[in-house]
Amino acid sequence: MNREIKTKKVGRQKKLTNPCPVIKGEVQIMVGSPKCITCQWFERKLEKDGKAYVHCNRPDSPRGLCADLIDVSRTISREFALVEEVFLWRHVIKPWFTPQRFNIEIVYFGYYNPTIIKLQGEGLRIEGRIWYRMPLENLEGHEYLLGTAFWFPISKEHNDNRIKILECALEDLERIKREGEPKLPPLTFEEPKINIPMMEDLAKLTKEEKEILMLTEEIWNRFLALPINHPMEANEIAMKIHDIQRMIISRPGFRMNQEMFRQYGNGNCNKG
Question: Residue 201: what are its φ and ψ, rounded to 5°?
Answer without folding.
Answer: -70, -40
